[in-house]
Amino acid sequence: MMIVVAFITLFSGYLAFSVNYSKAYRIKDGIVQRLEKHSGPNDDSLRDIEALIDEIGYNSLGRCVGAPVGDATDNVIGVREYPNQPDINPGRDDFYSYCIRKVSSHNYELGESDGNNKGQLTAAYYKVAVFFSISLPIFRLDSLFFINGETININYPVDHFFMN
Hints:
Layout: H1 2-37, H2 43-56, E1 76-79, E2 86-88, E3 98-109, E4 120-136, E5 141-150, E6 154-155
Antiparallel strand pairs: 1-2, 1-3, 3-4, 4-5, 4-6
Helix pairs in contact: 1-2
């Protein structure tokens, strides 16, 4: 009898983990796609992401600082589900639905070939972190996990939340 109870408990835990992981993975992929579609985190992409979160029913929270997007807090935004307003450079103890870090990949002046004026080429990609948790009260286990993703390199990103 005890073996059956242990098996059911482990199977239920595995099933809960799989469902939560699948949901978080879908959210991560959706956020990456929307950031690429709208050329970075801006009002349009955040509205699109909010609709995705509502559609899938994602509600996990985690900290932006640390393993998900790195220890530094510069060029990071944390977004809570409601209201969908990002916190720029989030605090170490604040919880968010997802986090985005901007990584500048190109920032240099173009040459004066053909007699054209010099211009500025900027490009960046974004690291995304979403969270999911598993809770097994019988074993007093409550763990938080995260999934990372990255966008492609975006030339001339349109982001309203980062200074550089």
